Amino acid sequence: MSLVSLTFPDGNARDYEAGITAAEVATSISTSLGKKAISATVNGAHWDLQWPIDTDASIAIHTMQDDDQANELIRHDLAHIMARAVQELWPDVKVTIGPVIKDGWYYDFDRKEPFTPEDLSEIEAKMKEIINARDPVRTEVWTRAEAVAHYEKNGEAYKVELVGMIPDDGQPIRMYWHGDWQDLCRGPHLQNTGQVPNNSFKLMSVAGAYWRGNSDNAMLQRIYGVAFKDPKALKAHLTMLEEAAKRDHRKLGREMDLFHMQEEAPGQIFWHPNGWRIYTTLQDYMRRQQERDGYVEVNTPQVVNRKLWEASGHWDNYQENMFIVEVDEDHAREKTVNALKPMNCPCHVQVFNQGLKSYRDLPLRMAEFGSCNRYEPSGALHGIMRVRGFTQDDAHIFCTNEQVENETRKFVTFLAKIYADLGFDQWKVKLSTRPEKRVGTEESWDQAEADLANGIKAAGYDFEIQEGEGAFYGPKLEFVLTDAIGRDWQCGTLQIDPNLPERLDAGYIGADGDKHRPVMLHRAVLGSFERFIGILIESHAGKLPFWLAPRQVVVASIISDADDYVQDVVNALKAVGVRAEADIRNEKINYKVREHSLGKVPVILAVGGREVEEKTVSVRRLGEKQTSVVSLDEIVSTLKQEALAPDLK
C-alpha cells in the first residue's frame, strides 16, 4: 500500500496509508479528537470526514469550536434536513437546490399550494424530530448514468437537469444520505443529524424564485432559514432582525414624511420637503468639506453621446446597465444614440482635457454631485437603498504616480472625519489586490498596491487584504462602516485607474517638457446620497443628529391663549437658523407630543399660561421622559449651537 504524507498546522508531518479518511486521521491523533471532529481542511478545501485522502496534503481537523466551519456545516445539513422534512410531510413536493448563504440557508421547492406560516411551524417541528433521531449521514460517488437513472425513477426532474449541468471534468458526483433521505450534493456534511443543535435555527420566510433564475422557467417556493451553532447567537441575530425591521428606512420614511416611490418611476425617488431638507443639508456639508480639502467642483451633462462611452469602454462592458436615449437630430430621420450617464468619470476626463495641464497643476481634485442612472432589475430595487436614479459624492484626483501615496493618506483622513461627524466611529478598510486577469506590469502593480497600503498606514489605520478582488487595471480600497446595530455597509472607495486616462488621451506636461499620463483616482465617501441617507435613517432609527434633522423643533401650545407666544418662540429660533414650526391646533398637548415624537422631531417645546407669563418653555427631547423648564433666551442659545453642522462649531 502506498503512503501519503499529511502535514498538520503545527508543521509536523505523519505518513498514512493512501485512502485514509479525515475521520481516521482525527482518531489516530486522539480518541477524543475523533469523537469531536466534524470536518477537515485538506489542501485549503473544506473536506468531509468520510472522504479518502489519496495524495500528500496539508490537513487541519475541525471541531464545533471552529466557528466558520461549524456554522457552514450546520447550515448545510439543515438545508437537507428541511428538504427531507418537507418531503416527509408532503411527498408530492419536488426538491431542487438548497445552498448555504450568509447566516443561514434556503431551499427551493416545487409545490402547487403556497407554504403558509403554519406550514413553516410544522416543518420546524419535523426537522427537530429528524435531528433527535440522530440518523447517520453517509456519502457515495456515483456515475452520471446512475444519478440520472435514480432521479428519473423517483420523478425528480429538477435533479436530472442538475446532473446534466455538472461539468464532465472528472469531478465526482456525490450523493448524500441523511437517514433514508438522499440528495445530490458536493458536501461536506456532519456525520449524523444529531450533531445539528436543535434549538439554534429558525425558518424565516417564503419567497418566489424562478428555477435557475430564469423568468421563462417554473416559479418555485424558496424557504429561508437562519442558524448558528450557539442558541445565544441565534437569539442575538433574531433581536437584530427585529431591531432592523423597526429601523427600516421605508417605514420611517413614511412616518417622517421624507419620500415616496411609485410605479410610474421605478427606482426613482420622489423627495418630500422633509427628506429633501436632509439631502441638501448633507450635500451642503459635503461641499464645505471638499472645498476645505482642496477640491474644485464641476457639473457635467447627464445625456452623453455613445461615442464617449465607446471610447471609455463602457459601451462594450456596461451597456446592459445603461439607459439609452435616441434622438432624431434636426428631424433628419437619423437617430443619434446617447446614454444617460451611469457614472461621472469619463466626463471628468473631458473637463481635465480642456486646456494644457502642467505637472504644477497636479494633484487636481475634481468633485461633482453627479446625477447618474443605472438600470437595476425591478426585483433588486429596495427603497432608496437600491435605485435606478441617484447622485454620487463623486470625485476624481488626477495626479502623478509619486503623489498616489500622499493622496491616499489625505483621503483616508478626510473620510475618517466625515464618518465621525455623521456618527460612524466604527469602520474598516479593505485593500483589493491584483486579479488573475489584469493589465500592466508586475512592477506597476507592486507600486500601486504599496502606495495604497502605505497611505492607509500613514493615516494611522489598519486594513484587510482582499486577494484578487481589484479591477483589471488597478487595486482599490473599500471603506466599510458599521452601523448602530452592527451591520456593515460598504460606502467609501478609492480606486487607482491608469486605464481611463490612457483611453481618453488625458495628459499633462511634466518637468522634463514631455507629455505624461496622469493617474486617475476614483473616490467617494458616501457613495450615493440616496443609499447613504437610508443608512443614516436606519442607523439612527430616524433620530437624526439635531443639525441634520429635517424638522428640528416644534413649539406646541397647551392653551389657545399661548398662540401668540408660540409664534414669538418660533420666530426667535428661526432668526438664529433653527428649523422651527408652530403647532397651535386645538388638540391636547399629549396628542401633539405623541404625533411629533412619531415623526422623530428632536425637540418639542410646550407653551402654556405659565410659560407665557415667565417667558420660558417646557422642553421635551425625543426619547427622554423628563421635561425641563428653561428661559426663552437659554433655549434659543442652546439650540442655535446644536443646529450648527459639526464643521461649523
The total beta strand count reads: 35
Radius of gyration: 31 Å
Approximate helicity band = 25-40%
Strand content: 25-35%
- Principal-axis shape equals globular
Question: What does this molecule look like?
Answer:
The chain has 649 residues and is of the alpha+beta class. Helix content is 35%, strand content 28%. It contains 20 helices and 35 strands. The strands form 9 sheets. The protein has an 8-stranded mixed sheet with strand order 18-22-23-30-27-26-24-25. A 5-stranded mixed sheet has the order 2-1-7-4-5, with helices on both faces. Strand 4 and strand 5 form a beta hairpin. Helix 5 runs antiparallel to helix 6, helix 8 crosses helix 16 and helix 13 packs across helix 14. The longest helix has 23 residues.
Describe the structure concisely for a colleague:
The chain contains 20 helices and 35 strands. By secondary structure, the chain is α+β, with helices and mostly antiparallel strands.
Features:
649 residues, 20 helices, alpha+beta, five-stranded mixed β-sheet, 35% helix
Furnish the topology, listing elements before pairings:
Blueprint: E1 3-7, E2 13-17, E3 20-21, H1 22-29, H2 31-36, E4 39-42, E5 45-47, E6 52-53, E7 57-62, H3 67-89, E8 94-95, E9 100-101, E10 104-110, H4 117-133, E11 137-142, H5 144-153, H6 157-165, E12 173-178, E13 181-184, E14 201-210, E15 219-227, H7 231-246, H8 249-255, E16 259-260, E17 270-271, H9 273-292, E18 295-297, E19 303-305, H10 306-312, H11 314-318, E20 324-328, E21 335-340, H12 345-352, E22 364-373, E23 389-399, H13 404-421, E24 427-432, H14 442-459, E25 464-466, E26 476-482, E27 488-497, H15 499-503, E28 508-509, E29 515-516, E30 519-528, H16 529-539, E31 553-557, H17 563-575, E32 580-583, H18 589-598, E33 603-607, H19 609-614, E34 616-621, E35 627-631, H20 632-642
Parallel strand pairs: 1-7, 18-22, 24-25, 31-32, 31-33
Antiparallel strand pairs: 1-2, 3-6, 4-5, 4-7, 8-10, 9-10, 10-15, 11-12, 12-13, 14-15, 16-17, 19-21, 20-21, 22-23, 23-30, 24-26, 26-27, 27-30, 28-29, 33-34, 34-35
